[in-house]
Every structure is written in structure tokens, then in C-alpha cells.
Amino acid sequence: MPAHRLEARGLTLAYEARTVVEGLDLVVPDGRVTVIVGPNACGKSTLLRALGRLLRPVRGAVLLDGAELARTPTRRIAQRIGLLPQSPTAPEGISVADLVSRGRQPHQSWWRQWSAEDEAAVAEALERTSTAELAERSVDELSGGQRQRAWIAMALAQGTDILLLDEPTTFLDIAHQVEVLDLVRRLNVERGRTVVAVLHDLNQAARYADHLVAMRDGRIVAQGAPGEVVTAELVREVFGLESVVVPDPVTGTPLVVPGAPWAVKADA
Ligand SMILES: Nc1ncnc2c1ncn2[C@@H]1O[C@H](COP(=O)(O)OP(=O)(O)OP(=O)(O)O)[C@@H](O)[C@H]1O
Ligand SMILES: [Mg+2]
Prior knowledge:
Blueprint: E1 6-15, E2 18-28, E3 33-37, H1 44-51, E4 59-64, E5 67-68, H2 74-80, E6 81-84, H3 96-102, H4 116-128, H5 144-157, E7 162-166, H6 174-191, E8 194-198, H7 202-208, E9 211-216, E10 219-224, H8 226-229, H9 232-239, E11 243-247, E12 254-258
Parallel strand pairs: 3-8, 3-9, 6-7, 7-8
Antiparallel strand pairs: 1-2, 1-4, 4-5, 9-10, 11-12
Helix pairs in contact: 3-5, 4-5
Bound molecules: adenosine-5'-triphosphate (ATP) and magnesium ion.
InterPro entries: AAA+_ATPase, ABC_transporter-like_ATP-bd, ABC_transporter-like_CS, P-loop_NTPase, Siderophore_ABC-ATPase
Membrane topology: Peripheral membrane protein
GO molecular function, one term: ATP binding
């Protein structure tokens, strides 16, 4: 059996008294793109934060190569797992170049200062996210989409083989959404990166995921290949929405077309 690098076992997650996720088991397929979908407040970000050790489990554990994340030094984790949170906040006045450079921090120490390798990783991250021309700008004064790409660049510069991305396409126009998702796919195929992303767009999720995880109320309702998971029944069960699922005309993956929109009746 292949070793699974990132895994949640019997994971219970809570904020003080509010339990959000209970007894969740998840094996993140190594070297694949996993996409988590589900309604607002169902626990997607909470789960992702636990997978990146930003949240300590109440019960159960997250395992990285069989070792409990909670017992692994932060720096070791930062060298292995990159996490882009849903609403990251940047230090005031920081430039894009400086923000992206911070992604290299886990690779530095008193005996290993800024190197040519760090420089190259930052330059590549800026280039791949089309943020090179923004490098000297202050993060505060960017548009929502520009800022989002700067954060993605920081996560890329970290150079980890596991990337956790919470709604990486928010604020992005359709062309930049496709650019970011194509980039994620390329990182996966060319560099063997393991990706776990939360996405709201089911059709994009179906296009880009190898493994799709549908959540509701802190539980995994279904998981597997998008072609098997995304059905009208699932969309009804998870989102309470009537829809028709047809093959995507470009990729053949499931395309969810919501039921007819509300309209003024002609005879009303
Ligand atoms: N820091 C926090 N303190 C207390 N409750 C929280 C905190 N963060 C999230 N919650 C609660 O936990 C539940 C799950 O939130 P979470 O952010 O994981 O949802 P989500 O699935 O990512 O939703 P969305 O699609 O809106 O991003 C929600 O009820 C939310 O109010
Ligand atoms: Mg969220």
C-alpha cells in the first residue's frame, strides 16, 4: 500500500464550545489535486486550517508521513506544507516583493541567510502568478484580485510539496481564475505537488480535481472522482439546490446547471 502523506483520523475540531467538525477521516491522495466543496459554514476552512496545523484538534489527529502534526516542529511543517488562508492579512505597508519573500522564511536560519535559491524561488513565484510588475507596490493598495495573486505567489515561493489553498480564486476575474487553476494543475503535474483546495465553483472543482470531497455540516458526504461524485442528487443533498448535471462541453466533466431562475410570470 502506498504511504499517504497527509491524513486526518477521527478529527474533531471546535472553537471553544462550538464543535464544527466531528470524527472526520480523510486521506489526502499523494501527488494529486483534491478539491473540497460544500456550503458556507460547513467547516471547509476549519478542516484546511487543521490540515496545516493552524488549528489544534480537540480529538483525533492529522498525520504527516505517519507523524502527528501536533507533535511536529512548526518550522518542519512550514517546509512541507504551504497554506493560503481564506482571508490572509498582510503587515501594513509591506510590498509585494517582501510579502512573497516571506514565503522563504522556513528555509532560512542564522547559518543560512538569503540565498540565490531564495531569490530564484521568489522571482519564479512572481512570474508564475503574473505579479512581477506589482513587486514594488504596497499590498494594501492592490485590487482584490492583485492581492490574491500576491498571496498565491507567497505560498508558491515557500516551495512546499503540499499546498493547501482556501478559495484561491476569490476576487479573481474569470481569466485569472483559470490562470490560477491551470497553475495549480501545472505545479501538480510538473512538480508532483499535492494540492488541497477549497473551491465554491462546482464546475471548476469538477474540472481540476482528481479527488473531490463534498462536505456538509462538518462531515464528508461524498468523495471520489468528480465524474462519480457530482450528480443532481449530491447537489440537492449538499446544497439543497435543484439542478441538471450535463457533461462539460470542453472537458466532459460534470457541469452543474442550476434550476430555472426566479422570473416574473407573464400572466402575473
Ligand atoms: N475563529 C472562529 N471562532 C468561532 N467560530 C468560528 C471561527 N471560525 C469559524 N467559525 C465557525 O465555524 C463554522 C465553520 O466555519 P468555516 O470557516 O470552517 O466554514 P467554511 O465551510 O469555510 O465556510 P465559507 O464557505 O463561508 O468559507 C461556522 O459556523 C463559523 O461561524
Ligand atoms: Mg471558508
